[in-house]
Amino acid sequence: MTSMGKTRRTMSVGLIGAALALTLAAPARAGETPTAAAGWQLTPTGTDARFRGLAPVDRRTAWAAGSKGTVLRTTDGGRSWRNVSPAGAGDLEFRDVEAFDARRAVVLAIGEGEASRVLRTEDGGATWTESFRNTDARAFYDCMTFFDHRHGLALSDPVDGKYRILSTRDGGRSWEVLPSAGMPDALPGEAGFAASGQCLVSAGPRDVWLATGGGATARVLHSADRGVTWTATDTPVPAGDPARGVFGLAFRDRTHGIAVGGDYRKDQPSPSAGAVSTDGGRTWTPSATPPPAYRSGVAWLPHGKAAALAVGPTGTDLTTDGGRTWRTVDTGSYDTVDCTPDGSCWASGEKGRIARLAAKD
């Protein structure tokens, strides 16, 4: 992030201007921008893979990871994408990617047993090294997060009644399973959702939260020591079914968080699909006007304190009051969304869709 105050302010004003334009916009047809003023601008990816993993680094550089072992990278703001998929990875399902810059990134493949893997590149995707392969048939890894360029965690569904946490201290080159003594018991039927790479998120050097569903209640678990000890809190997002729960989390600091989710089945409603925390996840309040349907991804707009975007298969919603009320501003299909410190927001999803939030000059 630039240290030049004038540059940072200009980027911030431009992004907030786009958000305000979206606020005033009427919902558009699928894949179209809401108005001529601002909206999602689709970029040419040249693939039909579904990208549930997304890691924008800045306004020019972004990574996306998806189905059929596909990994893409752009260094020109999405005008072109390079296929940098690992060799022989066609059978893998990448659901998360964490990128440090244009050359270094870590991707997570999901699935039972050895289908769950972590791969790392240090040369922009020209070569990849497998740094973890799950050998426990009971484990199923869903998502990961990094606190900095060295320290990161990955989340598995419960094993022996507790969520399993994988930890790295060297940027994803090596991993170890953390002790489970500080992890609360999982609820019957409870699990994480590998829907957007946002079932495990961090803020600052030590705080991390994980989202759950499938159990009697949808919960958020919080750790203030990089995953060693955890506390669990119920949320008002409906659960009680394997298809319901919290699918995505976003914390703009260690205090203010948003949870989104619902029921991912197309024929099922998703009431109370959003919730807000102002105390680091210790308590959650339902959104007064929640997203109108299932949402799997959520991201705070940078440099502001109240604006965020939520996305799902039926559209994009915008809040300008910290997640208390939401308005649909686009009806295109996206699975995940993320924004960068220098003022760009990106979204990705099915059929090769990757878009940037763009404002008209």
Overview of this protein structure:
By secondary structure, the protein is mainly beta. The protein is built from one helix and 28 strands. The protein has one helix at residues 5-24, and strands at residues 38-42, 51-56, 62-66, 71-74, 82-83, 93-99, 105-112, 117-121, 129-133, 140-146, 152-159, 162-168, 176-177, 200-203, 207-211, 219-223, 231-234, 244-251, 257-263, 274-277, 285-286, 297-300, 308-312, 315-319, 327-330, 336-339, 345-348, 354-359. 54% of the residues are buried.
Which helices and strands occur, and which strands form pairs?
Blueprint: H1 5-24, E1 38-42, E2 51-56, E3 62-66, E4 71-74, E5 82-83, E6 93-99, E7 105-112, E8 117-121, E9 129-133, E10 140-146, E11 152-159, E12 162-168, E13 176-177, E14 200-203, E15 207-211, E16 219-223, E17 231-234, E18 244-251, E19 257-263, E20 274-277, E21 285-286, E22 297-300, E23 308-312, E24 315-319, E25 327-330, E26 336-339, E27 345-348, E28 354-359
Antiparallel strand pairs: 1-28, 2-3, 3-4, 4-5, 6-7, 7-8, 7-10, 8-9, 10-11, 11-12, 12-13, 14-15, 15-16, 16-17, 18-19, 19-20, 20-21, 22-23, 23-24, 24-25, 26-27, 27-28
